[in-house]
Amino acid sequence: MSRLLPLALLGALVALPLALGANPYLLNALIVTGIVTIGAMSLNLLLGFTGQLSLGHIAFFGIGAYVSALTSLGFDVEIGFGLRVVHEPWPAAVGFVLATLAAGACGYLIGRLSFRVRGAYFVIVTISFAEVVRLVALNWVELTQGPLALTNIPAITLGLPGIGAWTLKTKLQNYYLVLAIGTLCYLVIARLVGSRFGRAMRGLKENESLALSVGINATRTLTVAAVVSAAMAGAAGSLYAHYLRIIDPDVFAFTTTVSMVIMVVAGGKGTLMGPVIGGLIFGLLPVALRPVMAPEAQWIVYGVVLILILFVMPRGIVPGVSALLARRRPVRAVPVLEASPVVQR
Amino acid sequence: MSAILSVEHVGVRFGGLVAIADLHFDVAQGEIVSLIGPNGAGKTTAFNVMTGFLKPSQGEVRFRGTSLKGLQPHEITRLGLARTFQRTSVFPDDTVFDNVMIGLHRQGAAGAPGIGRAPVLDALLGRAGASERRLRERAEALLDWVGLSARAQEKAGSLAYGEQRLVGVALALATEPAMLLLDEPVSGMNASETRVFVRLIRQIRERGVTLLLVEHDMPMVMEVSDRIVVLNYGRLIAEGPPDRIRTDPAVIEAYLGQGSAARRAAAEAQEAAHA
């Protein structure tokens, strides 16, 4: 199941627009859901696999969005002492790369700062960081336009010299871009988690003292996880900026972090598919509910759905369904100590 | 014989509480030494100091000539000094096999034999196949060696107590230590399990690993140790081979108190020793 389900889902998502036709409303919902799902996947790397809760995850997303937007729009700001920084617009694709790197660098700083003291401290540091970044975006009007928003952000242009270039302006193009980046993030996380590095993360989460005693460097391992996680969130933020083509300080909304946490927890933290399933359910629930009820009533339904999921499957959908599918094997009782080769020697 | 581990006048204070007053002893290469003493004597505290989980208030520990002062637990492990834990000796949610794979962490590090310079990058690019295979082979060999092959695919947290201890030993051995510290390895084991474990300890020594144990099971300690170090109230009160420790009046007093019965027992034991 572990291999089949992701492939089947990927196939379905690739085929979906063909089946639906060009329905802009639905495509828009799918694109935004996909972007937030990438954020949830990145959050899961920290929350699910290392057990560290980043409640300011939206900061990395927002930093990615702003870095990407500013790189592709250019800016001209005074930074004091009579110095001016002038930046000519660069291609949006460069913005995407810089957004990923900048968010990863922020993840490094936050990780180094807070992984000496973990748990609640990490939660508080991440929340504070997100709030600080939001205030900067709101108040540094010369750079970010503040609440007036950065507008006319160019769409991403993909191109190979000699072959041609495509500017991804339509929803359909953006849909496949988000799907491709999301698949890439999924593969990166899957590779990491299945590797020696993933085992170190699991060890730290399950029994930290024991993990240290086998030579695992806790600070380094957690920092690498934070860097990868933040970089992915930054990439998602960049996609968001170049898709909507307008961003304001509201991209730092705390509720988006909460949505990501809900997606991860409902889908199953610490599983590869959990945030994807959770993301699709909570991202597309509004689409399903819109014809039936008012937005205010929808919020109540989200709450009920979340409570129901966690009531029936406390560890989330993916672990819950896997447990249902796995037939309980009868456990053989072999007294290992007596059967040990040490005894027979 | 040269000392592989030297505990040099180590003291540990938690505020006004003296956990270890002044501990000073050596362990020679290839020895099996036991650290014993009544509850609260400071044995586990001493272990935590040697492995970097606690910073001593005074003194220092030297391992193979290197001072361990200021080193983190994972750095001390990398020098070749491994340990097991009293209560939680496994990664409970992983299989026994994956437990050992986690234990082989350093064997997959950059610069280890057969490992590239950037293991994380290799994993991302799918180039880690060969080194992963090598690690899996070693994990299998280790599990076979401690006698846990039959349990490889079971969750470590669901194993019986004694078996979890074996997983703990396999994890520690996976770091390829020169010296292994065992924290109450046979507590909670029955007599036959203990017997098997004593054999395992001897085989670990045959692999060239020096052993230091903290243990309450006196018959086991007397049987397995070359030398015994006795702690009471954070002080070393006796040191020597098992025969001498068994009849040492200070040791008997520490364990049984100063009652007349204890004194009589000590006197009788001494007589028996002389006879």
UniProtKB/TrEMBL annotation, chain A:
Family annotation (Pfam families): BPD_transp_2
Signal sequence residues: none
Location, primary (coarse class): membrane
Keyword terms of this UniProt record: Cell membrane, Membrane, Transmembrane, Transmembrane helix
Matches recorded under InterPro entries: ABC_transp_permease (IPR001851), LivM-like (IPR043428)
Segments crossing the lipid bilayer: 31-51, 58-75, 90-110, 122-141, 175-193, 214-239, 275-293, 299-325
UniProt-listed CDD domains: TM_PBP1_LivM_like
Keyword Transmembrane: yes
GO cellular component: plasma membrane
Membrane topology listed for this record: Multi-pass membrane protein
Subcellular location, record wording: Cell membrane
GO molecular function: branched-chain amino acid transmembrane transporter activity
Protein name: High-affinity branched-chain amino acid transport system permease protein LivH
Gene name per UniProt: livH_5
UniProtKB/TrEMBL annotation, chain B:
Domain ABC transporter: start-end pairs: 5-258
GO CC terms, sorted: plasma membrane
Coiled-coil annotated residue ranges, if any: none
Organism in which the protein naturally occurs: Methylobacterium symbioticum
Protein name, entry field: Lipopolysaccharide export system ATP-binding protein LptB
Similarity comment: Belongs to the ABC transporter superfamily.
UniProt-listed Pfam families: ABC_tran, BCA_ABC_TP_C
SMART domains: AAA (SM00382)
GO molecular function: ATP binding; ATP hydrolysis activity
EC number(s) reported in the record: 3.6.3.-
Keyword list, A-Z: ATP-binding, Hydrolase, Nucleotide-binding, Transport
PANTHER family, A to Z: ABC TRANSPORTER ATP-BINDING PROTEIN (PTHR45772:SF4), CONSERVED COMPONENT OF ABC TRANSPORTER FOR NATURAL AMINO ACIDS-RELATED (PTHR45772)
